[in-house]
Prior knowledge:
Layout: H1 5-26, E1 27-29, E2 35-37, H2 46-82, H3 97-102
Antiparallel strand pairs: 1-2
Helix pairs in contact: 1-2
The structure holds zinc ion.
Amino acid sequence: xxxxxxxxxxxxxxxxxxxxxxxxxxxxxxxxxxxxxxxxxxxxxxxxxxxxxxxxxxxxxxxxxxxxxxxxxxxxxxxxxxxxxxxxxxxxxxxxxxxxxxxxxxxxxxxxx
Length: 113
Ligand SMILES: [Zn+2]
């Protein structure tokens, strides 16, 4: 067990809040809690439609990667609650503290990454 787990928890919560804020800017949440990229209507002109689609495509990709990241953070927070935080998912060894400091939501050690 890491001695400064509270710090990691704090970092994870901050990161979770930041990601949720980013997601709210570009996506809306459905009743299941899934985020859906928003399609913004700029107007009816041809170039409006082109930028709508371009913007939507970008939002789709960003929403997806933010959501993936959010899931990892939620999982890490759950692990803190049940005392398994900092263990590699694959080999069950401790993930080096340095790695967790750089990336608190890490699920695997460097060897198993
Ligand atoms: Zn491992």
